[in-house]
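Objective 1.3, modelling of assemblies. Example input:
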Amino acid sequence: MILTFKEPVEPMEIRKLLFVTKFEDLCFDALRSLLNLREADLQHVVFMNVVERDKVAMYRGTGYRKSEEVRLKEKANIRFIDWAEDLFEEGLEVGVYLVVGRLVPQVIKAVEKEEADLLVVGRSPKGVFKQLYGGSDVTELIRRASVPVLVFKHLTENPKDLEQPFARPLLAMDWSPASLRAVEYLTRLGKVIKQVDVAYVAGDDELTGSTGMAIQKMRKERRRQLDEICDQLEAAGIRAESHVYVGDTNDEIEMAARECQSSMIVLGSSSKSAWVERWLGSTPLSIAEDSAFPTLIIPPDKG
Amino acid sequence: MAKKILIVDDDPDVRMFNVSVVEEHGYTPLVATNGEEGMQLVKDEKPDLLLLDVLMPRESGIRLYRNLRTSKKYKDLPVIILSGIAERSFLRSQKALAEFGGATVPPPNTYLEKPVEPEELAAAIEAILGE
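Predicted structure (tokens):
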């Protein structure tokens, strides 16, 4: 069954974002590139740094290294104070979390406590063990977060080029409830989005029929469905274009983003269980982990 | 009866430091860990002075400060801001918030940049509450 975007959806705004950083993965320039969300009602930024427990854990004969915990927290605090001053001067409210523990549970706890509307994380390199056994912290956060997750990646090496991830997103559609929610999400961001490219990737299994016309019929039908989404976006004042691709989903989404000169890829999160994802793979998680583009993953409606 | 001083700070070390200074000078400390808790204690306990941090989880000191200053009932409650954030940035933030359509609020009674010496904090308290 194909759901339409007229299904009731939970309203989504970006008033408060939680910016989780280990500093080597995300710095202030990444946050600065998101500040145009102010025009879409962003009012509050919460910084978070989690000191991994193994950095302050008990060593033989030394016990828990409290002084190391204090040193690491204050190091992060000094950086956050500097960032906060910049944001304060722009009239934003700022909060800070400096905690010791495991990253994923601490971040999920903070998202809930703060009632954040958007979680921003960087992409850390995966170790071999994590690649084999269940993915990185980013994967885990996407699986567990109840709010949209932006996995930030820089598209340019030049810090002087101000990136704007929300300026020209590529929306990868599969008509899942989460991707329909992504449409709704983007329609609310008209003040910061210049254009949305809406793409669908047909798998080889959809190329049925013995004639070219039969195959083109599939393209035409998908195109019509994408155009309906474009109409909804345009009704919200956002320029939108539809694109149909054929082939491997991950590769084609990446190609579409390049061809459209996208600033970000947006996908609804997978509804597969973690176990199924581990064996069969998940497009949103693969794109979030491996794509060169910043990736915004929208979860399905909690209701 | 001893005057009450409400300390709003998320850092337990800072809270402990402030409580000891407040007690040492004969005042009664009240403690909150964020702006929401702070506002509740303002309503429930009617403190005579607020020692307020700025960067906190949940509701920041800026929100609480602005809520107080725009409230008919609490606008005159003396506030000492105690923060790692520079005073200049705090004042600019108030200006920016006013430009974004918020109310124009007066500066705090005193602004102290962390870390403060006990004598410095005590002097600021005495300047406001001392007879």
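The first helix of chain A runs from residue 28 to 32.
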